[in-house]
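[agent] plan:
  1. take the single chain provided in the ticket
  2. run structure prediction with default settings
  3. attach structure tokens to the ticket
  4. add a short note for the reviewer (M.T.)
[agent] executing step 1
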Amino acid sequence: MHKVLIALLSALLIAGCADSFEQKVVEVKFINHTGYPIQDITVNAIPVGDLARGSASPYLVFARFGTDTGMPDADFRGRVGNQLLESTSRYYWCGTQKAPLAPGRYEVIIELVTLSEDELLFDLRFVP
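[agent] step 2 finished; step 3 output follows
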């Protein structure tokens, strides 16, 4: 009886501690679908480096990563050629649809969108 009680208590202790081992951070991989190499990338002030055309970053750890209407809401910046570009999320200013991304692993596609003749922006989308 004593061994059964110890086994039961051990099982409860292990089950209770399992939650503390779950992933508590957001990991994001960025995939370059722009058709161009991107240099000097930063995401939310975290240096990422360069991404060749068609390549992907390793998973990067973020303590917090936002969304707006289901889209990545990050301060994404980088250079294409000699032009410093920002992401379309700079226009996500309303705030009513903003939410933190739940802990886990995500992949984000980077594309280019033309806002005007002389303004290109990065457009970020989650991989479905």
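[agent] step 4 note for reviewer: The domain at 24-126 is CATH 2.60.40 (Immunoglobulin-like).
[agent] ticket updated
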